[in-house]
Amino acid sequence: FFFFFFFFFFKQKTAYEISACLVGSEMCIRDRLISEGIINMDCEAEKCIKIAEQAIEDKNYQKAKKFLLKSLHIQYNTQAKALLDKHAHLFDKKTEADQRVEDEKLCNLILKEDNYYKMLGIATTASEDDVKHQFIALGRKFKNMNGAVAEAGAAFKKVAQAYLCLSNLEK
Asked: What is the rounded end-to-end Cα distance, in angstroms, of the chain?
């Protein structure tokens, strides 16, 4: 009787809902239902992959990554792994808001700093080439800010002053 009730009670639920309500020793019942084919984990994993594919089309990469990882957690499959690998560079992208906050922090740190070496983020034993490469890298960062950060101009002026001072051996 228990199994009959259990079967019809969970027949309409998804595997995720079942696993959420089963705890401890009852998890072995869930495993038994999976092994008997009552719960099809392939379907659950495929649903997650379809949701992730739609999220990728909508350029919602965080949602896509979440559902691909969920699919792999439910059941390992090569399709989800391939999608994760293919779009890995998109999943790690920061949102514009996150990037702006990071840029503002960088500008504030540079504006507060008086030490030219710390301003450029290099060691005091850095060579002229190291100073030049770091200045170019910071220049690219400030160029990519495109006026999104109000203090970017002032911060870049301080970086340029630091570069001129450190690259000139006479000073």
From this structure: 90
Could you give the CA distance from residue 170 to residue 158 in angstroms, rounded to a whole number? Answer: 19
Per-residue pLDDT tens over the stretch 49-92: 889 899 888 888 888 888 888 888 877 778 888 888 888 777 76
Burial class of 56 by CB neighbour count within 10 A (0 to 12, 13 to 18, 19+): buried
DSSP string computed for 119-135: HHT--TT--HHHHHHHH
The span from the CA of 107 to the CA of 153, in Å, is 9
Q: How many CA atoms lie within 13 A of 19 on its CB side?
A: 11
Other Cβ atoms less than 10 A from the Cβ of 51: the count is 17
Q: Is the pTM of this model over 0.70?
A: no
Pairwise CA distance, residues 106 & 104, whole Å? 5
- Total Cβ atoms within 10 A of residue 100: 14
Q: What is the dihedral of CA 104, 107, 113, 114, to 10 degrees?
A: -160
Give phi and psi for 60, each to the nearest 5.
-100, 80
